[in-house]
Amino acid sequence: MQDNFPQNFANLTHIDHQGQAQMVDVSDKAPTFRQAVAAAKVRMLPETFAAIEAGNTPKGDVLATARLAGIMAAKQTAALIPLCHPLPLQKIAVEVTPDPQLPGYQIHATVKTKAETGVEMEALTAVSIAALTLYDMAKALEKSIQIESIRLVSKTGGKSGNYFPPEP
Amino acid sequence: MQDNFPQNFANLTHIDHQGQAQMVDVSDKAPTFRQAVAAAKVRMLPETFAAIEAGNTPKGDVLATARLAGIMAAKQTAALIPLCHPLPLQKIAVEVTPDPQLPGYQIHATVKTKAETGVEMEALTAVSIAALTLYDMAKALEKSIQIESIRLVSKTGGKSGNYFPPEP
Amino acid sequence: MQDNFPQNFANLTHIDHQGQAQMVDVSDKAPTFRQAVAAAKVRMLPETFAAIEAGNTPKGDVLATARLAGIMAAKQTAALIPLCHPLPLQKIAVEVTPDPQLPGYQIHATVKTKAETGVEMEALTAVSIAALTLYDMAKALEKSIQIESIRLVSKTGGKSGNYFPPEP
Amino acid sequence: MQDNFPQNFANLTHIDHQGQAQMVDVSDKAPTFRQAVAAAKVRMLPETFAAIEAGNTPKGDVLATARLAGIMAAKQTAALIPLCHPLPLQKIAVEVTPDPQLPGYQIHATVKTKAETGVEMEALTAVSIAALTLYDMAKALEKSIQIESIRLVSKTGGKSGNYFPPEP
Amino acid sequence: MQDNFPQNFANLTHIDHQGQAQMVDVSDKAPTFRQAVAAAKVRMLPETFAAIEAGNTPKGDVLATARLAGIMAAKQTAALIPLCHPLPLQKIAVEVTPDPQLPGYQIHATVKTKAETGVEMEALTAVSIAALTLYDMAKALEKSIQIESIRLVSKTGGKSGNYFPPEP
Amino acid sequence: MQDNFPQNFANLTHIDHQGQAQMVDVSDKAPTFRQAVAAAKVRMLPETFAAIEAGNTPKGDVLATARLAGIMAAKQTAALIPLCHPLPLQKIAVEVTPDPQLPGYQIHATVKTKAETGVEMEALTAVSIAALTLYDMAKALEKSIQIESIRLVSKTGGKSGNYFPPEP
After folding, report:
1. Which residues of C are identified as catalytic?
2. B67, B76, B114: residue with CB nearest E20
3. Domains in chain E and their CATH numbers?
């Protein structure tokens, strides 16, 4: 558990010495290639899962809509998360995979950039909005759908090095 | 569990008979007062929680930033969720409460409208973006923070009646 | 031709007596139900059309993406068209229909509101952005795709009465 | 006609092997200077054209409004077209030229960037929204105004080389 | 001076009893017609003023651009001001008047709605962005241009009654 | 006074030879580090100032909200100011400082980029929206609050060199 905890514990980077929220200054960093992968789960009743799987045939619009909403939301990250930097994005991919064991859907998003700071928030925003879109499209069937385990799966590139989460 | 599952199981309201995603037509509904409450949890390491709680003194900007991000995001719901209707909103409130047992934060959002359709998605979007903002502000300390249990807590008003989730 | 031309020719409603662009004042109008239907054509080479039709199998994402882009764009109309009023929208539907004779696609959008002014621009914006999205997704195959005949198909409700275009 | 059709006909770049819409990965491309020019026509009745030309004097706000709407819309392209990359833009120019023969207006947009991918969609979005704005400002006079021939006029820079449309 | 100061001085309406920023709950208010007028001044060197006045001939695009930017910004008020309610707007008018005595420009904005809360912020946002646009278009000539006296000129309608500022 | 006035007085850079508003072409410039600092004052009655200072304890949300609104607005500059270029931003900082002598608040914003053009408008937009947010949060107490002296404090980097305003 210690492994994914940085040594420099001094303070939060987004809070200055007066306790005020601030955007991190990245002007002294060089742009490098960076990638982040995030994930989320959408858990629902078996009946709801069966309806989406069936309703998704033959056009697949439920999952396609969720995927597109995630891609488009990633591009709005800097407008939604107050202290995020606006970044160029070179790739946004969102996958929505049925998981009959859950039952529900596993969502993954991969975002790439060449920039002074990483794209973790873009990937996390993509899976969050994709999951919310799934909720929206199925809420007439079941209001108790839950979105779970929104998390960073990996982060590569950048000065702070790569990140892979600890084994559960 | 059956109780929160509608009788009309025929199909998904956002998918038409050709399997295409669609916005629900609410033009034959009368506007009524509606309220939705949603919740989310942000789980983190004890050290991270302690740092936010400490760093939050005396200005409290971490939690204030998350709350404001949630309020502002609720107003962007129709732009983010493809099939949501743009609605007037009469109240958006977001609470971020420390939970030392988690450890982490419990987030609640309450949204009110007088409209032809409900504001569940606005409340769910508010807690999601508030949670992502918390992640963003603490990610330099811990990348393994997880957002959990994004869920609808209650829904009142509207033709389909009130909703309270089943006992866990 | 005269039939679809209003008697009051005095001046353009969006230009004041000094020749300055202005938003029409609708504060003395009562909100009524209104609907507008708009259409567009996307013309392409037979090979491009065949590729989209084939590539669209089995998930249908090309047309689904165009439809969703149109729905979402309709909600941004007041942000895009400078003098449009922000309106509540109760229904946005976009259809993209293959037309082998064109060859290409026929796009239709239907928008409904209960408001003081109509939703022609929302419907026209929906078909335009849906058409541009089709272009975007096929431009690697053919850059000479053309968008044609963006037009109002019908308008019902409102003080100025219904509109149906003259026979061609 | 063959000339403007690429050899690599294998599949649509925005659709992956599962038929899902995707954003093209441009992370292995180097940023280069790129320019795109797009055009559109707005066709109207002679009376409408005369009214705009007259009403445009002396302040010219109809055409100025359309031009500005096009410039501003180009900056929103990545938010409107689901699979477009957000790009820095170094120049956006929109021209609206009266064409008494049409009768109506010819609209041209030129967009420049230094980026990993081109700005065709930005130029096409600019002419489309400029044309819709013209419609909006004249629709009280004539609802049968049509937008025609939205097309790419030229594209220079980038790996795929320059593009000029075939002779009509 | 007392006259424009409300009796109920207990606390700020946007801050709850815990000192947290909040959106005012307007769900128990009835929608009524409301209007707000705001103003701003843009002061510059005589040479700059002369250049804008001259450069504005014959197309007048400097002032037209500022006016349009103000109109469009008013529609973005709820996205910019964190605790503002999203409101329907029935009229937005912006005037930019040359004032050789200043020298510079006087800007006025009038906004109307029928809603549960007023449109002061929409009018103030309109004049602010119109003024900033003027700055942007003239900053190559003079960087010392100042925007002054952004203020509410009048407010009519609503429960709190009309407001006219005290005599200076 | 002459010192802050450029020699090249020929015309406004945002107006072409036909008098039409245009975006400046920066495609032949190299990206360099640039910083801009802007300022604004918010003047109010002593009672209002006292209430904000008191109400701001212990959570300080009035000033925190204004600061965040300014930071977020800076990221929307290109969407608000018609002829601004969309730019990457590497730092946005907003300070809101109580000034009992005014009485009211002094607002400063600092914005950094590495780009082909400067960030004066981003800094000016940040202070303007921060000031408007302060107004919004205190307007129930006093509607006669005024925003004054929105101005550029300094500009460094870029071809045109550094700028510091003349002594008052």
Report:
1. 136
2. B67
3. 31-156 (3.30.70.640)
